[in-house]
Specification:
single chain, alpha+beta, Dipeptide-binding Protein, domain 3, ten-stranded mixed β-sheet, four-stranded antiparallel β-sheet, about 20% strand, globular, Peptide/Ni-bd
């Protein structure tokens, strides 16, 4: 099988770094970061992608936050109290918090932030309503005193505290006066930086208004092509770049001006099978993947280890589900690469090859430039499926303006490439993508009751051992009736100029408050 080797040869032109642009080297008070995808919105309730959230984190504060070691620590709040039944959390805010205009930020602003994101009239689909609220059963926020706010839930969930820490806080007086269109483009800061300008498709410029933060300005340049990002880093025009292409690591390390820092990331890269009714009836391929036997067969068709080694430049163990090691189900074995078995299972499922060698035809959509070498990964997967008689039409799309809206509306597919952010602090955090059938992050619209019925059992578990037994059982259901074609946990390669100090995190959170000029 030469599928991946062919793609590598076809992509050798990317090894030649283009000339850097005419951007000048950054001044001492400015940090420049090269990222692959533009923000799609700065409405704090509608942000969904990691690149977008990384920028927004510098504009908006959160009650608590996850530190680089995976500990959940205070940010805008100084303490909290969980109710005995686990269905409410009362936070005490730090004193003297302010909004961008200097107005005091109180519990009223916090309660407003939480309730605004849940308001059905706003029809928000971002991380807060689509993932956090559906996972924790958010039931409303209320003011207790100027510095105390109570977050109410309709159910107990062991990861509620960690998920509440993802909700961006914003300023009531400002946002009550804004249209949704203005909120998306003209955010009012509650954090360390304000949005100075946003040249869509080009750059986002932030200006510091209060501590923490070492640089007065942070410029996020949108550079979709990996080779161009590397060239800009080597030329000294940017200080940090994300998603260094594997074939450019040596060029960066040998440049004398920058180095690549790598970490084992937590993002789950997978191919989703969209089981939405419109896809089930919209095409032969969309209909075929509704069957468990077909989805299992396709697991055997893709050589994930070869993709990791040859397209991503790292050795990987294929995922067995949606949970990061070491919290995964240790009894499950990754599906092996076995194209003969894939063909055998497809025959048995009622999809033999036709006279032209095709079993069925399907569309496979993927972003270009969002994940590490994503376009070539998608093309390789498409070729592997072609090899077993599944005619796969790969459609590569721009991330922010095209792909994200399709994802948010569950209209991508019938097969689609996606990376979902994960964590190491809890199996339940990773599993919360599928917290309910109607969860915003259930992009496949998978409905297996053997999975979803497990959540009440987890909430009722009295010991860690009881909870773990339910988790392992649910992960076995996911494995045997897979809504995903399981791939790998993405490694993260950051290019860092010798001008600055920056240590990457495993969770893809690019927080720059402590980044400084090298001594």
């Amino acid at each position: 099988m030469n599928t991946v080797r062919y793609l590598l040869m076809a992509g050798t032109a990317a090894l030649i770094l283009p000339f850097a642009s005419a951007h000048a080297a950054p001044p001492a008070d400015t940090l420049v970061v090269g990222i692959s995808a533009d923000a799609s919105t700065f409405d704090p309730a509608n942000i969904s992608s990691r690149d977008n959230s990384n920028i927004a984190k510098h504009i908006f504060g959160t009650l608590y936050e996850v530190d680089p070691e995976g500990q959940i620590v205070p940010q805008m709040a100084e303490s909290y109290v969980e109710s005995e039944d686990g269905k409410s959390y009362t936070y005490t805010l730090k004193p003297d918090l302010t909004c961008e205009d200097g107005e005091a930020l109180t519990a009223e602003d916090v309660a407003y932030s939480f309730n605004r994101a849940a308001d059905p009239a706003n029809a928000f689909t971002g991380n807060t309503p689509g993932f956090v609220y559906s996972s924790i059963g958010f039931a409303g926020a209320e003011v207790v005193s100027d510095r105390e706010v109570k977050i109410n839930l309709d159910k107990k969930n062991p990861v509620s505290f960690g998920l509440i820490a993802e909700v961006f806080i914003h300023c009531k007086d400002s946002y009550e006066k804004m249209s949704l269109e203005d909120a998306a483009a003209k955010p009012i800061a509650s954090g360390s930086y304000r949005l100075a300008s946003w040249d869509r498709g080009s750059q986002v410029v932030l200006e510091k208004i209060k501590d923490p933060g070492s640089f007065q300005n942070i410029v996020w340049r949108i550079i979709p092509e990996a080779s161009t990002r590397s060239a800009e880093l080597i030329a000294g025009n940017v200080d940090i770049i994300t998603n260094v292409a594997p074939d450019q690591i040596d060029a960066v390390n040998n440049s004398g001006t920058a180095e690549v820092k790598s970490v084992q990331g937590t993002r789950r890269i997978y191919v989703g099978f969209n089981m939405k009714d419109s896809f089930a009836t919209g095409s032969p391929g969309g209909e075929a993947i509704q069957k468990t036997d077909v989805r299992v067969a396709l697991q055997y068709a893709v050589d994930v280890e070869a993709i990791c080694k040859q397209l991503l430049n790292f050795e990987c163990t294929r995922a067995t589900g949606l949970v990061n090691p070491p919290n995964d189900n240790k009894s499950l074995t990754p599906y092996p690469y076995d194209p003969d078995k894939a063909e055998e299972l497809l025959d048995a499922a009622g999809y033999p090859r036709g006279e032209d060698g095709t079993r069925f035809e399907i569309t496979f959509q993927a972003p270009r430039g969002r994940y590490l070498n994503d376009a070539n990964v998608a093309l390789a997967i498409g070729q592997y499926l072609n090899d077993i008689g599944v005619k796969t039409n790969v459609e590569l799309m721009e991330w922010a303006s095209v792909y994200v809206p399709l994802i948010q509306k569950h209209d991508v597919g019938p097969m689609f490439l996606l990376g979902s952010g994960g964590g190491t602090w809890s199996a339940l955090y990773d599993m919360a993508d599928l917290s309910a059938v109607d969860a915003g992050t259930n992009y496949t619209e998978w409905k297996n009751p053997a999975w979803f019925d497990g959540w009440p059992e987890i909430a009722a578990a009295k010991t860690d051992e009881e909870q773990r037994a339910v988790i392992d059982r649910m992960l076995e259901v996911f494995y045997n009736d897979p809504p995903w074609l399981m791939l790998y946990f993405q490694p993260d390669f950051y290019g860092v100029s010798k001008r600055v100090t920056f240590e990457p995190r495993r969770d893809e959170k690019v927080y720059l408050f402590d980044t400084a000029l090298a001594q």
